[in-house]
Amino acid sequence: MILPIRAFGDAILRKHCHEIDKDYPELKTFVANMFETMDSANGIGLAAPQVGLDIRLFVVDVSPLADDEDYEDIADELRNFKKVFINATILEESGEEWKFNEGCLSIPDVREDVKRKETIVIEYYDENFVKHTDTFSDMRARVIQHEYDHIEGILFTDHLSSLKKKLVKGKLAKISQGDVSVNYKMRFPK
Questions:
Q1: How confident is the model over 82-140, as pLDDT tens digits?
Q2: Which residues sit opposite 47 in a β-bridge?
Q3: Main-chain phi, psi angles of 138, to 5 degrees
Protein backbone atom coordinates (compact mmCIF):
# COMPACT_ATOMS: atom_id res chain seq x y z
CA MET A 1 0.00 0.00 0.00
CA ILE A 2 1.32 3.43 -0.93
CA LEU A 3 1.34 5.74 2.07
CA PRO A 4 1.12 9.55 1.90
CA ILE A 5 4.45 11.26 2.53
CA ARG A 6 4.41 13.98 5.18
CA ALA A 7 5.42 17.41 3.93
CA PHE A 8 7.81 19.91 5.48
CA GLY A 9 6.09 21.60 8.41
CA ASP A 10 4.49 18.43 9.78
CA ALA A 11 5.46 18.16 13.46
CA ILE A 12 6.29 14.45 13.18
CA LEU A 13 9.30 15.29 11.01
CA ARG A 14 10.86 17.01 14.04
CA LYS A 15 10.32 14.16 16.52
CA HIS A 16 13.16 12.11 17.95
CA CYS A 17 11.77 8.65 17.18
CA HIS A 18 11.51 5.76 19.63
CA GLU A 19 12.78 2.21 19.34
CA ILE A 20 10.54 -0.73 18.58
CA ASP A 21 10.83 -4.43 19.37
CA LYS A 22 10.43 -7.52 17.21
CA ASP A 23 6.74 -7.76 18.17
CA TYR A 24 5.88 -4.40 16.62
CA PRO A 25 2.44 -4.89 15.02
CA GLU A 26 2.38 -5.58 11.28
CA LEU A 27 6.14 -4.91 10.94
CA LYS A 28 6.61 -6.90 7.71
CA THR A 29 3.59 -5.21 6.12
CA PHE A 30 4.81 -1.77 7.18
CA VAL A 31 8.28 -2.43 5.72
CA ALA A 32 6.72 -3.59 2.44
CA ASN A 33 4.55 -0.45 2.39
CA MET A 34 7.62 1.71 3.01
CA PHE A 35 9.44 0.23 0.01
CA GLU A 36 6.34 0.53 -2.18
CA THR A 37 5.84 4.16 -1.12
CA MET A 38 9.51 5.01 -1.72
CA ASP A 39 9.53 3.31 -5.11
CA SER A 40 6.33 5.01 -6.26
CA ALA A 41 7.88 8.41 -5.42
CA ASN A 42 11.17 7.52 -7.15
CA GLY A 43 13.07 7.81 -3.87
CA ILE A 44 16.16 5.97 -2.68
CA GLY A 45 15.43 6.24 1.03
CA LEU A 46 12.43 6.73 3.30
CA ALA A 47 12.09 7.02 7.07
CA ALA A 48 9.07 6.12 9.20
CA PRO A 49 8.35 9.71 10.33
CA GLN A 50 7.96 10.64 6.65
CA VAL A 51 4.88 8.42 6.57
CA GLY A 52 3.59 9.46 9.98
CA LEU A 53 5.15 7.07 12.51
CA ASP A 54 7.67 8.20 15.11
CA ILE A 55 9.61 4.92 15.19
CA ARG A 56 13.30 4.30 14.49
CA LEU A 57 12.92 2.60 11.14
CA PHE A 58 14.06 3.54 7.66
CA VAL A 59 14.54 1.81 4.32
CA VAL A 60 17.17 2.38 1.65
CA ASP A 61 17.38 1.16 -1.94
CA VAL A 62 20.16 2.80 -3.93
CA SER A 63 19.95 0.33 -6.83
CA PRO A 64 18.56 3.05 -9.18
CA LEU A 65 21.94 4.80 -8.91
CA ALA A 66 23.80 1.73 -10.24
CA ASP A 67 23.07 2.69 -13.85
CA ASP A 68 24.31 6.27 -13.41
CA GLU A 69 27.69 6.75 -15.07
CA ASP A 70 28.84 8.86 -12.08
CA TYR A 71 28.78 5.68 -9.98
CA GLU A 72 30.04 3.07 -12.43
CA ASP A 73 33.04 2.27 -10.17
CA ILE A 74 30.66 1.17 -7.37
CA ALA A 75 27.73 0.02 -9.52
CA ASP A 76 27.77 -3.55 -8.18
CA GLU A 77 27.65 -2.40 -4.56
CA LEU A 78 24.78 -0.01 -5.31
CA ARG A 79 22.80 -2.50 -7.40
CA ASN A 80 22.59 -4.91 -4.46
CA PHE A 81 22.00 -2.38 -1.69
CA LYS A 82 18.41 -2.61 -0.49
CA LYS A 83 18.16 -2.61 3.30
CA VAL A 84 15.92 -2.07 6.29
CA PHE A 85 17.36 -0.28 9.33
CA ILE A 86 15.55 -0.66 12.66
CA ASN A 87 16.68 1.01 15.92
CA ALA A 88 19.79 2.25 14.16
CA THR A 89 22.63 4.03 15.93
CA ILE A 90 25.52 5.59 14.06
CA LEU A 91 28.58 4.65 16.11
CA GLU A 92 31.19 6.51 14.10
CA GLU A 93 31.51 8.94 11.19
CA SER A 94 34.94 9.29 9.61
CA GLY A 95 36.83 10.43 6.55
CA GLU A 96 36.66 13.67 4.64
CA GLU A 97 33.48 15.67 4.50
CA TRP A 98 32.15 15.88 0.96
CA LYS A 99 29.39 17.95 -0.55
CA PHE A 100 26.53 16.46 -2.47
CA ASN A 101 23.31 17.99 -3.76
CA GLU A 102 20.60 16.40 -1.61
CA GLY A 103 16.84 16.42 -1.85
CA CYS A 104 14.03 14.87 0.18
CA LEU A 105 10.60 13.45 -0.60
CA SER A 106 9.19 15.52 2.29
CA ILE A 107 10.74 18.69 0.85
CA PRO A 108 9.98 18.51 -2.89
CA ASP A 109 11.62 20.93 -5.33
CA VAL A 110 14.36 21.89 -2.87
CA ARG A 111 17.88 20.60 -3.50
CA GLU A 112 21.01 21.92 -1.81
CA ASP A 113 24.60 20.88 -1.20
CA VAL A 114 25.11 19.17 2.16
CA LYS A 115 28.44 18.14 3.70
CA ARG A 116 28.64 14.68 5.25
CA LYS A 117 31.46 12.37 6.29
CA GLU A 118 32.36 9.71 3.72
CA THR A 119 32.27 6.61 5.99
CA ILE A 120 30.00 5.48 8.82
CA VAL A 121 29.82 2.59 11.25
CA ILE A 122 26.20 1.81 12.10
CA GLU A 123 24.51 -0.66 14.42
CA TYR A 124 20.97 -1.72 13.51
CA TYR A 125 18.46 -4.54 13.28
CA ASP A 126 17.18 -5.81 9.94
CA GLU A 127 13.54 -6.68 9.21
CA ASN A 128 14.03 -10.11 10.86
CA PHE A 129 15.43 -8.44 13.99
CA VAL A 130 18.93 -9.74 13.37
CA LYS A 131 21.48 -7.30 14.79
CA HIS A 132 24.23 -5.93 12.51
CA THR A 133 27.20 -3.63 12.88
CA ASP A 134 28.37 -2.54 9.43
CA THR A 135 30.66 0.00 7.81
CA PHE A 136 29.43 1.86 4.73
CA SER A 137 31.04 4.46 2.49
CA ASP A 138 30.21 6.45 -0.64
CA MET A 139 26.57 7.10 -1.59
CA ARG A 140 25.39 4.30 0.67
CA ALA A 141 26.76 6.15 3.72
CA ARG A 142 25.26 9.45 2.54
CA VAL A 143 21.76 8.05 2.03
CA ILE A 144 21.90 6.26 5.39
CA GLN A 145 23.01 9.47 7.13
CA HIS A 146 20.16 11.40 5.48
CA GLU A 147 17.56 8.83 6.59
CA TYR A 148 19.15 8.50 10.03
CA ASP A 149 18.73 12.25 10.47
CA HIS A 150 14.99 11.76 9.92
CA ILE A 151 14.66 9.41 12.91
CA GLU A 152 16.55 11.99 14.96
CA GLY A 153 14.12 14.77 13.94
CA ILE A 154 16.67 16.45 11.64
CA LEU A 155 16.07 17.53 8.04
CA PHE A 156 18.75 18.07 5.39
CA THR A 157 17.88 21.77 5.35
CA ASP A 158 19.13 21.97 8.96
CA HIS A 159 22.64 21.39 7.62
CA LEU A 160 22.54 24.48 5.39
CA SER A 161 24.35 27.74 6.08
CA SER A 162 22.36 30.69 7.42
CA LEU A 163 22.39 32.28 3.99
CA LYS A 164 21.13 29.13 2.24
CA LYS A 165 18.40 28.74 4.88
CA LYS A 166 17.22 32.28 4.12
CA LEU A 167 17.23 31.55 0.39
CA VAL A 168 15.00 28.44 0.72
CA LYS A 169 12.71 29.84 3.43
CA GLY A 170 10.03 30.92 0.94
CA LYS A 171 10.02 27.54 -0.80
CA LEU A 172 9.71 25.75 2.55
CA ALA A 173 6.77 27.96 3.54
CA LYS A 174 5.01 27.12 0.27
CA ILE A 175 5.56 23.39 0.81
CA SER A 176 4.14 23.54 4.34
CA GLN A 177 1.05 25.32 2.93
CA GLY A 178 0.57 22.66 0.26
CA ASP A 179 1.62 24.96 -2.57
CA VAL A 180 3.74 22.39 -4.42
CA SER A 181 3.09 19.92 -7.20
CA VAL A 182 4.28 16.33 -6.76
CA ASN A 183 3.56 13.08 -8.59
CA TYR A 184 3.15 11.05 -5.38
CA LYS A 185 0.75 10.98 -2.44
CA MET A 186 1.56 13.74 0.01
CA ARG A 187 0.00 14.92 3.25
CA PHE A 188 0.41 18.56 4.20
CA PRO A 189 0.32 20.08 7.69
CA LYS A 190 -3.07 21.31 8.85
A1: 999 999 999 999 999 999 999 999 999 999 999 999 999 999 999 999 999 999 999 99
A2: 58
A3: 60, -145
Output the CA–CA distances (angstroms, integers) from residue 62 to 12, 18, 141, in the order listed.
25, 25, 11
Q: CA 5 to CA 185: how far, in whole Å?
A: 6
| Sequence-distant (≥ 6) Cβ neighbours of residue 171 within 8 angstroms | 109, 110
Please choose, from the candidates 158, 37, 40, the residue with its C-alpha nearest in 3D space to the C-alpha of residue 148: 158
User: Could you give the CA distance from residue 144 to residue 150 in angstroms, rounded to a whole number?
Assistant: 10
pTM (2 decimals)?
0.95
SS3 call for 133: strand
| Torsion on CA atoms 59, 37, 16, 95, rounded to nearest 10 | 40
Residue 2 DSSP one-character state: P
**Catalytic (active site) residue 92:** no
Residue 51 CA: distances (Å) to CA of 4, 13, 41, 113, 114: 6, 9, 12, 25, 23
Annotated catalytic residue within 69, 72, 147, 152: 147
